[in-house]
Specification:
It is a single chain. By secondary structure, this protein is α/β, with parallel strands linked by helices. Helix content is 38%, strand content 21%. The strands form 3 sheets. Strands 6-7-8-9-10-11-12-13 form an 8-stranded parallel sheet. One of its GO terms (cellular component) is cytosol.
């Protein structure tokens, strides 16, 4: 497949936390593998040469459209999409028994249902602008291979994790021993890699990830074995860390230490690791997480339901921890990462409000709140960096993973829930440019209606309604 693309128009990205750039009338060109080969102002000599020398037709964006990096969902339980939006009334450990384990076991026993659920999940992700996703799967190898196949076919960049768990409150949903679990993890890694081995490197979009569910479902022997497997095979690791009060207390009572210590001594806090939640970590713990190179998937919506503590986002950022956002389906009810961005800002502002009400001041100039531009960074470049990807920005050498957003139409009227009264009716500004206020309004009010295109590695994805 030739993934060469030429697009001229407005580009928006956040190369650094809080630094939003709106680049008007730029030209982006990719090579045949979907990697950006040129990105400059369209009126530069190099851009003019590119316009005349490449055979591919140039896409010229209409007024009111801009190109933005795809969203990166750093934490999503694929089988739990089966019951998304249900069962959020229980504490975490009870919820797992009542909903999560049952749903995962059901998909493990019905490959046709799994394929149907995962196919719909992939379409929904594309509609919501998510081009890269880090997925928790189930225990059974075949079901996770179905998940990997579906994501590869859909054109999504996906990191797929077969669950490893040799302890469970549901005896029918666990692996029989640590050694059995380790053998299954190794087998899945090999077979998942085989799925794309015959493809060119740039078309291999799916990658296996080691996935110990969390400390309460994994013996020390299993965790240590997974740490060794990760090091030997250079495999990414994902799990849950310090998520909820009842989960933290279970680990303390059963292991006699904090779960961060269990992960650390097992060789599972590494630069290849993404830990979800981390709501009960303090600043010294963030310092240690940063020193290990471990990243965090912040899932604000599910934290509101299952954690007695809000995530200390600003403190983690101040310590240099790499952070992205996750939806945590189905612990969070919304698959749209735009809602994760909005909840991240809201919760951080409430934390700042609580600080003010407690009589604490910002004499040091620091605030616990984040703004929408910082949240956009977390949803794009932040998540990509956590996964070791060069996506999330528009730069030469980066794969072209992007979405096209439309905020106003040819008449200057807002699209979807967006309204721009200054650009409508008599005296309206002709051919207005996309402004920071327009991007902010889209961030607050936009949805799938505003999304008119999606690309992963230069390939155009199907964004048509289901």
């Amino acid at each position: 497949m030739n993934r060469a693309v030429r697009i001229q128009g407005t580009f928006v990205h956040t190369q650094r936390l809080g630094n939003l750039e709106i680049l008007h009338d730029y030209l982006l060109v990719t090579d045949s593998t979907g990697v950006i080969a040129h990105f400059e102002a369209a009126d530069s000599a190099q851009s003019q040469a590119a316009l005349s020398s490449y055979a591919e037709p140039c896409i010229t964006l209409p007024p009111g459209h801009f190109i933005l990096p795809n969203f990166v969902d750093l934490h999503l339980h694929a089988p739990q999409f089966l019951y998304q939006g249900n069962g959020l009334h229980l504490p975490l450990m009870e919820w797992l028994n009542e909903y999560a384990f049952k749903a995962e076991e059901r998909l493990d026993g019905d490959a046709a249902l799994a394929r149907r659920v995962y196919t719909r999940l992939a379409r929904r992700l594309i509609q919501d602008g998510t081009g890269t996703v880090l997925l928790f799967g189930t225990i059974k190898e075949h079901t996770n291979l179905v998940l990997a196949e579906v994501m590869q076919k859909a054109g999504l960049r996906a990191f797929v994790g077969k669950l490893s768990m040799d302890i469970s409150s549901r005896p029918s949903y666990m692996e029989s021993s640590a050694q059995t679990s380790l053998q299954a993890a190794h087998s899945f890694v090999e077979k998942c890699r085989d799925l794309t081995a015959s493809l060119p490197t740039h078309e291999r979009l799916v990658e296996p990830v080691l996935t110990p569910r969390f400390v309460p479902t994994c013996s020390d022997e299993l965790l240590v074995g997974l740490g060794k497997l990760s090091a030997a095979e250079n495999l990414k690791i994902q799990s849950h860390l310090a998520e909820a009060h009842d989960q933290v207390e279970v680990v303390r009572s059963e292991r006699g230490v904090e779960d961060i210590q269990v992960f650390d001594r097992s060789g599972l806090l590494t630069a290849r690791t993404i830990q979800a939640h981390c709501t009960f970590l303090d600043v010294p713990s963030f310092k240690h997480v940063h020193s290990c190179g471990t990243s965090i998937a912040h899932c604000p919506l599910s934290n509101s339901y299952f954690s007695a503590e809000p995530f200390r986002l600003r403190e983690a950022l101040d310590e240099g921890v790499q952070i992205g956002l996750g939806t945590d389906i189905a612990g969070g009810y919304s698959l749209d990462l735009m809602n994760s961005m909005r909840h991240a800002v809201s919760i951080s502002r409430m934390r700042q409000g609580a600080k003010i009400m407690a009589g604490l001041t910002d004499d040091d100039g620091k605030t616990l709140a984040i703004d929408w531009k910082e949240a956009l960074y977390l949803a794009t470049k932040g998540g990509a960096a956590a996964l070791g990807l060069m996506t999330g920005v528009f730069a030469v050498g980066s794969p072209f993973d992007a979405q096209e957003i439309c905020v106003f139409d040819s008449r200057g009227g807002g699209v979807g829930a967006l309204d721009f009264f200054d650009h409508e009716g008599p005296g309206a500004v002709a051919d207005p440019s996309v402004t920071i206020e327009m991007v902010e309004k889209w961030w607050c009010l936009g949805n799938a209606v505003n999304r008119t295109g999606m690309w992963v590695q230069g390939a155009k994805l199907d964004t048509s309604p289901l």
